[in-house]
Amino acid sequence: MLIDSHCHLDFSCFDHDRGEVLDRCRKLAVDTIVIPGTQASQWQKQIDLCHLHPQLKFALGLHPYFLNSFEPAHLVKLTHLLNQYQNKVLALGEIGLDTHIDVDWELQIHMFEQQLTIAKEHMLPIILHHRNSHNELIRILKAKKFTQGGIVHAFSGSLQAAQTYIDLGFKIGVGGGITYSRANKTSKTIAQLPLNSLVLETDAPDMPLMGKQGQRNSPEYLPEIFECLLALRKETKQEILQACSYNVRVSLANL
Length: 255
Ligand SMILES: [Zn+2]
Prior knowledge:
alpha/beta, 9 helices, 8 strands
């Protein structure tokens, strides 16, 4: 059984065929799908979808992309939902820092720090979003003494950066990036990391796989990412399959 540790199945581009996508996932043994939070207006939809489809699980948080519509009441609502669903919510996320977006950097840092504090208060791991921001993320995680770990979503970067996150208690999210080339830096990093640090993800509908550029990405393509991971690693298929699922279960709450 495969777990997609990061998939935005709540997005409206899945509204017309979500049930069919989930049927196809089940046939492909993709039996658990984690839907990370993005913005306050989506949280109830995520919760409702997870109630409707038991193979879906949710995390809640404020993604840096959507912070231009942030209101202080959202943090109150977040805390309220984390209390209400303390036996269901998997993590606080996705949260993080992104240098490629038109969102004030100081606001991003402030919201990341605030949500780290909330994660600590609720004893939750986090799902971490990065883009050109490893140094700042690692600096803040250390400064805040954040020890609950979680998943570095769609990891790309050096072995040294990955190892630093692992030392801080995180698993490394392996996504469609590895389908593009075995020779790129991230693929080389993923090949060298300890197996007990790796988790699989699609980030659907984003991050299309090689050969599917311009199309909606989907959790039903997770087995293709798994096959690419297999090609990068020395362990057996069974060992990698078991490890990737186990690693998600130990890095997130309530799973
Ligand atoms: Zn995401």
